[in-house]
Design brief:
mainly alpha, 2 helices, single chain
Length: 63
């Protein structure tokens, strides 16, 4: 069974999550928080790897 983690929300954070929830058409504030976390991870990975960067096999002389 998945463990549920909860964060304490102040009024400002709850208002921002509510705005994201409405904007993205989500059902709960938990979904809004997850959406934001996933978005941040995607953007962070994009920054590390570069957008549209091609990956090529690296082969040595024996290959």
């Amino acid at each position: 069974m998945a463990e549920q983690n909860r964060i304490a929300l102040d009024e400002e954070l709850e208002a921002k999550l509510e705005a994201v929830r409405v904007q993205q058409g989500l059902d709960t504030l938990d979904q809004a928080a997850e959406w934001l976390a996933r978005r941040r991870l995607r953007k962070g990975v994009n920054g590390l790897t570069g957008r549209g960067r091609a990956l090529y096999d690296v082969r040595g002389p024996s290959d």
